[in-house]
Design a protein that fits this description.
279 residues; alpha+beta; five-stranded mixed β-sheet; four-stranded mixed β-sheet; 11 strands; 39% helix; 24% strand
Length: 279
């Protein structure tokens, strides 16, 4: 008898807990499903560049995920544009709604983008999801590397010229520039199509190592050329002034100048400026 009382009490408590903590309350949730191209962790930013494509118009799909059960019909969700640096109707158009296709839990917002010839500006489009009669917003943020990512907001960076691809890793390639992008494609034998897909991570890291070695080699060559140029300039000046300064002082001055330049380079304080001189 005691055994049956315990079982009934357990069922009663389980029933109460289910009533107090509903999971979806009859609705499903939506959130931006944007992943970093390398780490696959959540992010709230995407990039698009017409410079990588030979087209004048393109429809960019911003991924959105729905939780809960699948449906056998298309489900539409709402969103709003919080702000933009572009002109709607000129640089882009916005659909009225986003869609989760029938039989799927992954959908998108399809944003038509328009190329403007000779326009090198990088524009931003900030979007935010809204609840409606079909979808709720119960997943506001995700935790990534001790930081939070807002899953209900996203930023699309787009340009008619070449912009930083999503696969560009700052920790491997450094800052982005068109000159460095072109150098990578030339050195590694790649073209724009390489950046459009999702390359093998190990291959991509290997190519990043090749690019980094190239940058370091160019920086070393520039340092040596700078030192040699300065050394030659010092001797030329000393030749002109040899009537006032003795040869022993000239040599000591040249050695001192070279050592100072080498010390600055060893400290690495000018690395970024030197890299920018290359690209």
């Amino acid at each position: 008898m005691r055994k049956y009382i315990v079982i009934l009490l357990g069922v009663f408590l389980w029933s109460c807990s289910q009533e107090e903590m509903p999971l979806y309350n009859g609705k499903t949730c939506i959130y931006f499903n944007i992943k970093d191209a390398i780490s696959s962790s959540a992010t709230d930013e995407m990039n698009f560049s017409f410079g990588l494509l030979n087209v004048m118009d393109s429809v960019f799909q911003i991924p959105v995920m729905a939780t809960g059960d699948l449906a056998d019909y298309d489900r539409y969700f709402d969103f709003v544009m919080d702000s933009t640096t572009a002109m709607e109707g000129v640089h882009f158009d916005l659909p009225e709604k986003g869609v989760i296709p029938a039989g799927k839990n992954a959908g998108y917002i399809a944003v038509p983008l328009h190329r403007i010839v000779d326009d090198e500006e990088i524009y931003q489009l900030h979007l935010r999801l809204l609840p409606n009669e079909t979808f709720e917003l119960n997943l506001p943020e995700a935790y990534v590397s001790s930081d939070t990512v807002d899953l209900l907001r996203m930023t699309l960076n787009f340009s008619s010229s070449i912009t930083k691809p999503m696969m560009w890793m700052d920790n491997c390639f450094g800052y982005f520039s068109v000159a460095k992008y072109n150098a990578f494609c030339e050195i590694c034998g790649k073209d724009a199509s390489y950046w459009e897909g999702k390359p093998n991570a190990m291959v991509h890291l290997a190519l990043a190592g090749i690019m980094q070695a190239y940058i370091e080699q160019k920086m070393l060559e520039n340092r040596n050329n700078s030192i040699m140029s300065s050394n030659t300039s010092d001797f030329n000046t000393n030749d002109k002034d040899r009537g006032m300064i003795n040869n022993h002082s000239n040599i000591n001055c040249n050695i001192s100048n070279i050592n100072k330049k080498q010390n600055v380079n060893r400290n690495g304080r000018d690395d970024l400026s030197q890299e920018r001189n290359i690209f």
